[in-house]
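Contributing new records

If you add data, match the layout below exactly. Sequence lines come first and carry their own label; structure lines follow with theirs. Keep one chain per record. Anything else will be rejected by the validation script.
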Amino acid sequence: MTPWEIRTIELANCNCAYGCPCQFNANPTHGHCEAVVCNEIIEGHFGDVSLDGLRFGGVFKWPQAIHDGNGEAQPFVDERATPAQREAILKIMSGEDTDPLATVFAVFASTLTEVHAPIFAKIEFDVDVDARTGHFFVPGVAECHGEPIRNPITGAEHRVRIDIPDGFEYEIAEMGSGSATTYGKIQFNLKDSYGQFARLHLNNHGVVKSRAA
């Protein structure tokens, strides 16, 4: 197993209501899942291959809950990545060189029946986790915008976090409102649905914990 480790900033948007029942081992809001996610690697490596500064993500669709399987995915990777970096990121995303079901990538991979050929493209990415604002844009693939949830009466920003001490993706995620449009092999439109802002720290064995449970 090639040792790897990444620290990323993540923005994700799915079709569930704010909070996303999937985070609580419940069925998705509408009975199926449509999601798009993008990460920027702040610091990372795969063996001796540096992954610093690169971006990657995917568009996903499942006909029922994620754990019921039969999912479809369109991975995308930063066009700036070298061949070795591309191979490394795709191995991480596919759950290779990872303990069984130890990361969100490995879990998702186990539920997919169709994975389209990866797209290598320019990825615009600007996300502030603490402010719960951001966007990413992948030409011909996806565009996503995230912002704070707002009080329906006053319009004030409403801050909520999800804390999963023993999760496979993050320790704490900030909740927001997301909207997205995807193109190509997997197409959907999301508006003011579940938005997730998080800092990920993962390696072959899962989430690298930075605090006590």
